[in-house]
UniProtKB/TrEMBL annotation, chain A:
E.C. designation(s): 1.3.1.1
InterPro entries: DPD_II, FAD/NAD-bd_sf, FAD/NAD-binding_dom, Helical_ferredxn
Organism (species): Oceanicola granulosus (strain ATCC BAA-861 / DSM 15982 / KCTC 12143 / HTCC2516)
Keywords on record: Oxidoreductase
Reaction equations catalysed: 5,6-dihydrouracil + NAD(+) = uracil + NADH + H(+); 5,6-dihydrothymine + NAD(+) = thymine + NADH + H(+)
Subunit structure, as described in the record: Heterotetramer of 2 PreA and 2 PreT subunits.
Name of this protein: dihydrouracil dehydrogenase (NAD(+))
Dihydroprymidine dehydrogenase domain residues: 21-129
Residues in FAD/NAD(P)-binding domain copies: 143-428
Cross-referenced SUPFAM superfamilies: alpha-helical ferredoxin (SSF46548), Nucleotide-binding domain (SSF51971)
Function recorded in the entry: Involved in pyrimidine base degradation. Catalyzes physiologically the reduction of uracil to 5,6-dihydrouracil (DHU) by using NADH as a specific cosubstrate. It also catalyzes the reverse reaction and the reduction of thymine to 5,6-dihydrothymine (DHT).
TrEMBL record, chain B:
Transmembrane segments: none
GO cellular component: cytoplasm
UniProt keyword Iron present: yes
Family as reported in the entry's similarity comment: Belongs to the dihydropyrimidine dehydrogenase family.
InterPro entries associated with the record: 4Fe4S_Fe-S-bd (IPR017896), 4Fe4S_Fe_S_CS (IPR017900), Aldolase_TIM (IPR013785), Dihydroorotate_DH_cat (IPR005720)
Oligomer and partners: Heterotetramer of 2 PreA and 2 PreT subunits.
GO molecular function: dihydropyrimidine dehydrogenase (NAD+) activity; iron-sulfur cluster binding; metal ion binding
Protein name (Swiss-Prot/TrEMBL): dihydrouracil dehydrogenase (NAD(+))
Keywords tagged on the record: Iron, Iron-sulfur, Metal-binding, Oxidoreductase
Organism: Oceanicola granulosus (strain ATCC BAA-861 / DSM 15982 / KCTC 12143 / HTCC2516)
The 4Fe-4S ferredoxin-type domain, residue ranges: 338-370, 371-401
Domain of life from the UniProt record: Bacteria
EC annotation from Swiss-Prot or TrEMBL: 1.3.1.1
Function recorded in the entry: Involved in pyrimidine base degradation. Catalyzes physiologically the reduction of uracil to 5,6-dihydrouracil (DHU) by using NADH as a specific cosubstrate. It also catalyzes the reverse reaction and the reduction of thymine to 5,6-dihydrothymine (DHT).
């Protein structure tokens, strides 16, 4: 019988019911009483810091007051007006680094108003009822092509559809949702929420999704000809690799997470006895915690800098630790040893000196049946005609306009370092507003 | 250790905390529990005349309003006087008094405004051994429609008349419970005194509707789609009650008349405040109905602790100490100048002081970079609104300007001399300063 101690990479290390518990909702939803108690803690601050900290500028004190006064659905609408992915953001936003970090009650008592969970309560109130809260404006006759059905693309599509434009969304994968569907820990978005959210979002009407369509340069030219405007929300589909580690048992963490998210039987999903995740972001945390939840005997995160420098928040790091993940700071991978079941990862101690990472030559080995790389993503096939900024698409910060006439862009493909769903939503939404304004002007289009 | 024993119009009790005449004191079972919990006295739920007792509604009889975290701030009720037979109540009172001789037991009474009715019930109450009676001239709902309760309390002549009967047919202390549903509380208090009352107790409950059910447009509490005004009590009424108490305490015609304070008393501090305004003891209801009888432990322990801290040996040492400081607006010192001060270390940067001042007051708080909030002395009229809305106690305080400094708002030098409106040049009725 398979167990956490079974050598190599194997499925069914834990009984299905235990795996089920391990993947249950990270933050159980508030019931009505809990929501009211939590809402009562909000001070309704003037020019509230939480709103400033929210990339989508949700009017947090207002929606919390609406919950407190018994109008959770109206509270939900207040959220969705700013962020149509308010439901997902309530689940996946690192609130401890955004709204809740600056909550004055965090300052005063070290315990912020639980904004994320209140947001979930409000958005769930709207989404569990039939129908969509927004009414589409009269058809404008304009057509917009959105490439990529992730948070940026769909936020853009929704806003444009609301304004009466007809939107075609092209997605290379089989399902819409982008990272919400493929790239986020399962325990943050249980019960197929990502797809349910997309279905709900499409309720506004005027949006058609075309899955399984890869948009290369010639397809982009075609879309520019057939539509008034194109929005690129193509994300960063490529994962950086470490060729020196070889490829036996070494995979991209995003592929591991995607497979997990698409699995309908987690006990059939293979996982290493000893899993090592290399990286320091949320993807690293999500991969390691889920590997442990699947039954890995050990899950280790290897990060080359210290705790303070780690992109994943302290809260995320503590979550990983609490779920049994070991985080090894100040260490980088060197190479793998052994074959098959008996693998080891050789690591080297590192320090930062004068801002530069220095390898100390001090090596050690840790068991590693499975190595998952979470060291960042990139854009393997940028459209040739769009000017790049570094290795991603160049786009105006406020409007999302690219160098190519009639082409806007937003989300991870333009914003390295801001790789959060909430930022993608903001960029998609703001691009839509700019596109809408442009479409109203006499001269626009490709 | 301070001595909490009180002697209120000759009625002794181990502490000044009595339970007011209300549902918590409706029967022997509850009252025994109250005494076991430590209450100093009980005013038994109001007795009616001999005969078939009143009946209560069979739907909700209470309604409430809440503060944050559903903290009960105000409660109203449409319950009537006791709906149990007079004989049963009297028997129980006698038993309880016999078992708890050190506790105060007062009979609350409400019978029609007829001498015969009072003459009939008073001897029977006396037989129970109760320490005194309280005349319920206060309940504003139900019984008032039948010419009793607040219907009596709103007519000073009736009060005086009934008190005279009581003093004639009853030889123990007579306390008159006053209704606040009246324009000038001094009038019924004076009538009670003129009738020979030993004390007044106040306030009874206030006419109120606690809410409207917006699905069927019925006032709450709702009985089959209809509602009737009920009597309001709890923390929300405390300021109204204290003002009325102070009016009686400082009124020349009623000064010295013993007062039993009632109205939203929830903590030792509330009690101490009422007593400082002249109450010889206090009566509690809503707090007990909200938290149970155990709250009296907090009240007794902490009142005692405060008295020790202040060096008061008995409650008499501080009863009435605030009365001389209650005055008319016209005598307030206009040369007393303060400014708001924000303690930046305590400030949590919520900005509510700014919003309140900027939108609804005098634009006297600056919203500086970094979310720091600072008082603009040139604009600050010292209204205290910022203090009142600040979530952090003592973060914003009012600091008095020193004698001789210039108030940047008025440009005038702060004078030490007391000066009030009666001599102010802007007052057309001003008397020349002598």
């Amino acid at each position: 019988m398979t167990s956490p101690f079974t050598p190599g990479i194997a499925a069914g290390r834990l009984p299905p019911e235990e795996i089920g518990r391990n993947f249950s909702d990270l933050h159980a939803p508030f019931d009505k009483h809990e929501a009211h108690v939590a809402a009562d803690r909000c001070y309704f601050c003037h020019d509230a810091p939480c709103v400033t900290a929210c990339p989508t500028s949700i009017d947090i004190p207002l929606f919390i007051r609406q919950i407190a006064t018994g109008q959770p659905e109206a509270a939900g609408v207040t959220i969705f007006e700013q962020n149509i992915f308010g439901g997902m953001c309530a689940r996946v936003c690192p609130t401890e680094e955004l709204c809740e970090e600056v909550c004055v009650r965090e300052v005063a008592e070290g315990k912020p108003v639980e904004i994320g969970r209140l947001q979930r309560y409000a958005t769930d109130s709207v989404m569990t009822r039939q129908g969509h809260p927004f009414v589409r404006a009269a058809d404008t006759g304009k057509r917009v092509a959105v490439v990529g059905a992730g948070p940026a693309g769909l936020a853009c599509a929704h806003r444009l559809a609301m304004q009466g434009h007809k939107v075609d969304v092209y997605e290379m994968r089989d399902k819409p949702g982008g990272l919400n569907e493929y790239g986020i820990a399962a325990y943050k978005t249980v019960d197929e929420f990502a797809q349910a959210e997309v279905d709900w979002l499409l309720g506004v009407g005027g949006i058609e999704i075309h899955t399984g369509v890869t948009v290369n340069d010639s397809k982009l030219a075609e879309l520019r000809a057939s539509h008034d405007v194109v929005f690129l929300g193509i994300g960063l589909p490529g994962a950086f690799g470490l060729p020196e580690l070889g490829d036996e048992g070494v995979t991209a963490a995003i592929d591991f997470i995607a497979a997990l998210r698409q699995s309908d039987d987690l006990s059939a999903l293979p996982v290493g006895r000893h899993v090592v995740v290399i990286g320091g972001g949320m993807t690293a945390i999500d991969a390691a915690v889920q590997a442990k939840a699947l039954g890995a005997d050990s899950a280790t995160i290897l990060y080359r800098r210290d705790r303070a420098a780690m992109p994943a928040s302290d809260w995320e790091q503590d979550l990983a630790a609490a779920r049994g993940v070991r985080i090894v700071y100040n260490a980088a991978p060197v190479k793998t040893h052994g074959k098959g079941a008996a693998r080891e990862l050789e690591c080297e101690r590192t320090v930062v000196e004068d801002g530069r990472l220095v390898a100390l030559g001090d090596t050690f080995r840790i068991p590693a049946d499975q190595v998952l790389l979470a060291i960042g993503q990139w854009l393997p096939s940028a459209p040739a005609e769009v000017a790049l900024e570094g290795k991603v698409l160049g786009a105006d910060d406020d409007t999302g306009r690219t160098s190519l006439a009639g082409v806007w862009a937003g989300g991870d493909c333009v914003a390295p370092g801001k790789n959060l769903t909430v930022w993608a939503v903001r960029q998609g939404r703001d691009a839509a507003e700019d596109i809408h304004a442009a479409l109203a002007a006499p001269s626009v289009g490709g | 250790m301070a001595d909490l024993t009180t002697d209120f119009v000759g009625i002794k009790s181990p502490n000044p905390f009595w339970l007011a005449s209300a549902p918590p004191t409706d029967k022997e079972y509850n009252v025994r529990r109250a005494f076991e919990a430590g209450w100093g006295g009980v005013v038994w739920k109001t007795l009616g005349a001999e005969g078939p007792p009143v009946v209560n509604v069979n739907g909700p009889r209470y309604g409430a309003i809440y503060g944050a975290d559903r903290r009960l701030l105000g409660l109203n009720n449409i319950e009537l006087i006791t709906d149990r037979p007079l004989e049963v109540n009297l028997e129980e009172m006698a038993r309880v008094k016999a078992d708890y001789p050190d506790r105060a037991l007062i009979a609350s009474i409400m019978v029609p405004c007829e001498e015969a009715a009072w003459k009939a019930i008073l001897p029977r109450v006396a037989e129970t051994g109760a320490d005194g009676i309280e005349l319920n001239f206060g309940c504003p709902h139900g019984m008032s429609e039948r010419g009793m309760g607040s219907a009596v309390g709103q007519v000073p002549e009736y009060i005086e008349m009934v008190v005279r009967w009581c003093k004639q047919y009853y030889d123990r202390p007579v306390i008159v419970k006053l209704t606040p549903n009246i324009t000038d509380i001094r009038k019924p208090a004076t009538a009670a005194k003129n009738g020979g009352a030993d004390a007044v107790s106040l306030i009874n409950t206030i006419n109120s509707i606690t809410g409207v059910d917006l699905d069927n447009f019925a006032p709450m509490p709702t009985i089959d789609g209809k509602g009737s005004h009920g009597g309001y009590c709890g923390p929300a009424v405390k300021p109204i009650a204290m003002s009325m108490v102070s009016e009686i305490a400082r009124n020349p015609e009623t000064r010295g008349l013993p007062i039993s304070g009632i109205g939203g008393i929830t903590t030792w501090r509330d009690a101490a405040e009422f007593m400082a305004l002249g109450c010889g003891n206090v009566q509690v209801c809503t707090a007990a109905m909200t938290y149970g009888f155990k709250i009296v432990e907090e009240m007794t322990r902490d009142l005692s602790a405060w008295m020790d801290e202040k060096g008061y040996r008995s409650t008499a040492d501080f009863v009435g100490k605030a009365v001389p400081n209650v005055t008319d607006w016209q005598y307030l010192n206009l040369n007393y100048v303060t400014k708001a001060r924000i303690d930046q270390d305590l400030c949590i940067k919520c900005g509510r002081c700014y919003a309140a001042c900027e939108d609804t007051s005098h634009q006297a708080i600056a919203f500086n970079p970094g979310r720091t909030f600072e008082v603009i002395d040139e604009e600050c009229v010292a209204c205290n609104l910022c203090v009142d809305v600040c979530p952090v106690e003592d973060c914003i305080t009012m600091v008095e300007l020193d004698d001789g400094t210039v108030d940047p708002r008025t440009g005038k030098v702060v004078q030490k001399e007391y000066a009030n409106w009666t001599t102010h040049p802007n007052n057309p009725m001003a008397k020349a300063a002598e």
